[in-house]
Amino acid sequence: MADKKERLFVKGNEAIAMGALAAGCKCFFGYPITPQNDIPEFMSKAMVEAGGEFVQAESEVAAANMLLGAGACGIRAMTSSSSPGMSLKQEAISYMAGSEVPAVIVNMNRGGPGLGDIGPSQGDYFQSTRGGGHGDYRLLVLAPSSAQEAYDMTFDAFDLAFASRNPVLILGDAIIGQMKEPITPREPKKVDPNEGADWRLIGAPVKGKGKRAHRVIKSLFLMDGELAGQNMKLQAKYDAWKKMVDFETFQVKDAELVVVAFGSIGRIAKNAVRSLRAKGKKVGLFRPKTLYPFPEKQLEKLAKEGKRFLTIEHNLGQMVEDVRLSVRKYGDSDLFCVYPGNMPSPDDFEAPILKALGRK
Amino acid sequence: MTKAKTAPKAAPKAAAKTAVKAAKAAPAVKSVDASGDELVFTRPEAMVDRATHYCPGCHHGIAHRLVAELLDEMELTDKTIAASSIGCSVFLYNYIKADTVESPHGRAPAVATGIKRARPDKFVFTYQGDGDLASIGMAEIMHAANRGERITVVFVNNTVYGMTGGQMAPTTLIGQRTTTCPGGRCKDREGAPIRMAEIIAQLGGVAFCARGSLDSVKNIRQAKKYMRKAFEAQTTGQGFGFIELLAGCPTNWRMTPVAANKRITDEMIPYFPLGVYKDLEADGTCGSMIAPGAAGGEAGGK
Fold first, then answer.
1. Where are the domains of chain B?
2. Which CATH number characterizes residue A291's domain?
3. CATH number of residue A57's parent domain
4. Which fold, B77-285?
5. Which of A139, B32, B85, B166 has its CA 20 to 30 A from that of A190?
6. Taking 60 as the threshold, does the pLDDT of residue B17 lie above it?
7. Do A206 and B113 touch (CB under 8 A)?
8. In this structure, is the dihedral angle defined by the CA atoms of residues B208, B217, B87 and A234, taken in order, positive or negative?
């Protein structure tokens, strides 16, 4: 097969499910909500065929807690949902972060607040990058802009989750989930059966050969100084993630104005930048692929070079705060919002980009 | 108890008799503690040697001990993964030597579902109070039971939220005063106390469901028999096992331990009748159960 790579024509949602399957995901806990239903539907069959387990949980609350149980056993497990369902999953996500349980969580962001709509939105940026539930914690947040990226990021997310003993979040939206595109799948991963052997729960041999103390996966630390120690440990982990930042740049080198956009909006903005470049406008694109850790040093460097910024988002202005924090020593960022409920096109972005470019 | 530990789980009764005979025949071996005194009552091996944080007269210690004795006797400790809950019993893992996940409030049956699906060869149990299980965790307990998850739930019902200081629980009796129903629970205002064993027994995936009590030696011995059956519902693959234990909370009932025991006898047992509410094995209907994941097989690595 090396001479001719297999290509598949699939929805972004299906690409995510396939990526998870190839990465060795063995348990999937789902609950129906639009626009992510293709993921649990795919997994309900695929998990059984792969000798794994699929559970349609009674709620998103329960699905996320099942993920906590499976992850604590050192099994590669996943759940997926969309915005209103993500609110319900936050309880277990906070526990997983606090007790350092690896898991992969997918949010195909839809419009909000409240029930919102079933169309695309990036309104969950804050929820995704600031933890989302109670307490101080972070998730590794990956934002795909194509079906291929959705596949690859999900495939890699399991390794990242286990390497860091932390939940990893894939933040897509209705555009990424529902759009059909060709993807090239990877070789299925051979998961090390000893993955997590030094912490996972498999039953404690409390006597005889191989005796060890029983293990507890917990987030309650009541003794004096215990919780502070745990929080310091978590912060050190989040700090260490900074070297893992990932991003795409397009026509940035000689650009006067850099458009900063992620996910589906990053891809639409790329078309607008391409079109304006054809008209001789010195504009470029910076697309963060990791939303946490955020590529702040890279943006700061561009600001130091004298470039100006326009953040385009499918929300009321969330990532712009991170862009402004990144470039604050040298400049600022303009903001163009696509309100959730509207579907943007590249043409919509040209006027605001030109306006920001013209504003000295 | 340490003698019965050697009994094979396939035929516990017969083996227990054999063990008793063997014990009679063998010369008595005396256990001696550090100070040279003879130990006539020892700690189960599955129990950690430390004082509990429970209040005087609290029944959690007894309930923990029953769990630990059965883990010993059924030789389950090294293959057990527990899901602890929120409330006084959150510290279960300080006392039971089993690998444990600390679950959010009420979610232990969902966490246990995840554990069991990930590692179907393990023995998985939850240990939950009445606030945890019958209030905030009602959805999780009902659906885990209905799916017939091969897990065992130990439900300790003391009619109050203990850890937080004695607030009204879904099981608080009519007229019972708590810090959030200071005038006494009123049926028209707060609803009637929920009887969980009766509800759980109605669900399709349940193989064994019973209610015992910890107010007397006789009832404790009976409760242990029920708990064994609830464990066996899982170890034999029949289905979901549920054991409710009526327990005392002298601190939050504002009673002496003796008066608390009497309250269980006089007030709780009449409203929460003891006994077996479902026993598929006795009914001979366990053959109709369909194992979850039967089409799939085992989830992952051992």
1. 77-285
2. 3.40.50.920
3. 3.40.50.970
4. Rossmann fold (3.40.50)
5. A139
6. no
7. no
8. negative
